Amino acid sequence: MYVIIAGCGRVGSTMATQLAAEGHDIVVIDEDPGAFTLLDDDFPGQRLVGQAIDWDILREAGIEGADAFAAATDGDNTNIVCALIAARAFEVPCSVARVYDPRRAAVFARHGVRTVCPTDEAQVMMIDAVLECPAAHREG
Amino acid sequence: MFVLIVGAGKVGLNVARSLSNLGHEFVVIEQRRSRFRLLEAELEDHLQFGDGTEMWVLERAGIGRADLVVAVTGDDEDNIVIAQLAKLEYRVAKVVARVNNPRNQQTFDLLDVDATICATTLMISMIQHELPTHQFVPLLAMHRENLELVEIEVTEDSPAAYLLIDDMRLPSGVFVAAILRDGATLAARGGEELRPGDQLLCLLAPDKEKALISSLLPSRRPEDVQAETSIDSSDE
Predict the structure, then answer these.
(1) What is the pLDDT of residues B87-118, one digit of tens each?
(2) Is residue B212 a contact partner of residue B152, using CB atoms and an 8 Å limit?
(3) Under an 8 Å CB criterion, which residues of A touch B?
(4) Does B111 touch chain A (CB under 8 A)?
(5) What residues in B contact A111, CB-CB < 8 Å?
(6) Which of A84, A88, A101 sits opposite B54 (nearest CB)?
(7) What is the pLDDT of residue B116?
(8) N or C: where does chain B have the smaller number of CB atoms within 10 Å of the terminal CB?
(9) Which residue of A has its CA nearest to B78?
């Protein structure tokens, strides 16, 4: 499938590398050309410098035929806005935004964007990890 | 009326001052510590510190009972998210947002923000209005109302030249609001004769632009006329 990833940080670059290795067509957008150093030199996808909330950049990335859009820039609001544009303006069937703030993640999940909240995930895992300590099984 | 303003820059501060003069209740949210400190003495308990895209900050400021939310930060993504939260989560009746980069206007429109103001676009329109070379200038767009105000010139070879307003043929849905002639503004009464050099202020739906240009400037291609005044905002 054809996937556009906004933000080439740790999450974006890892997603891009893995999805490309699985044979998918990938375009990564980042406003900082230096961010692409996180991708291997032989990364088979496309690198595009620009802002992911810019409709022209999204068109250049091929959003009109994209199967999925994933927003993983370092800004919650940027991720929400570009995922909304992908879903509403370009009708990308699957539009996902990484949103650190659990409350905003919950609101926009109800309004047309799939949200992934690392904070929610982390707190569940941290609680599980703490409860795995031997002391957790003692009374009190 | 209770108004919540997010962003205490020049725009937000002056909105706050005018609301204060009009006797309205208001709160302003500012996230930059230095700006907050600067304005604390003037705005007193009307000013709150915090990130206005955080829901607890909005709630602390009283968004739940706001009649109007004004999102005027310097960041378009923030303004869009504030406008969306106000509408979707807090059912605020009216939201006004600032567009910093004209390229983002279409995103505000896509997400149904009630009213948007873009200083850059307004400034460019006003400059074009002052330049004698433009025969057609879109002055003001009211996106939600699907209405715009444009200025169009009556040229020497225009079919409207020397006609009375009542006799000129305009596309349906286009209204002449006023005539600008020799620095004066005339009411567009039916018996007024149009002269070459007159600028007509017209109200119309944006999709009537081409029809208006064809009827008053028939020697020119509407696309070319529109392109001359379209705003190229490739970079801020």
Answers:
(1) 999 999 999 999 999 899 999 989 877 778 77
(2) yes
(3) 53-56, 75-78, 80-81, 84-85, 88-89, 101, 103-104, 107-108, 110-111
(4) yes
(5) 84, 88
(6) A101
(7) 81
(8) C
(9) A77
Domain with CATH 3.30.70.1450 in chain B: 122-229
User: Are A77 and B81 a contacting pair at CB < 8 A?
Assistant: yes
CA distance B43 to chain A (A): 28
Fold of B2-117: Rossmann fold (3.40.50)
User: What whole-number distance in Å separates Cα of residue B157 and Cα of residue B172?
Assistant: 22
Work out the average pLDDT over B8-17: 93
Chain A / chain B CB contacts < 8 angstroms: 55
**Domain extent for A10:** 2-137
Question: Cβ–Cβ of B81/A81 closer than 8 Å?
Answer: yes
Residue B5 tokens read as 């303003």
- The whole-angstrom separation of Cα B136 and Cα B56 is 47
Whether B42 has its CB under 8 Å from any CB of chain A: the answer is no
Following DSSP, what letter does each residue of B202-218 receive, concatenated? EEE-GGGHHHHHHHH-T
In this structure, what token pair is assigned to residue B157? 């070879």
pTM attached to this predicted model: 0.80
Domain with CATH 3.40.50.720 in chain B: 2-117
A53 vs B107: CB contact, 8 Å cut-off?
A: yes
Residue contact A84–B78, C-beta within 8 A? no
ipTM (interface predicted TM): 0.91
Instruction: Name every residue whose Cβ is closer than 8 Å to that of residue B30 and which is 6 or more positions away in sequence.
Output: B7, B8, B12, B36, B39, B47, B48, B49, B50
Residue recorded with tokens 């996808």: A45
Return the number of other C-beta atoms located less than 10 Å from residue B43's C-beta. 20
Q: Model confidence at A140, in pLDDT bands (50, 70, 90)?
A: low
pLDDT band at B231 (very low <50, low <70, confident <90, very high): low
What CATH number does the domain containing A29 carry? 3.40.50.720
| Architecture field, domain B122-229 | 2-Layer Sandwich (3.30)
pLDDT single digits (tens) B31-80: 999 999 999 999 999 999 999 999 999 999 999 999 999 999 999 999 99
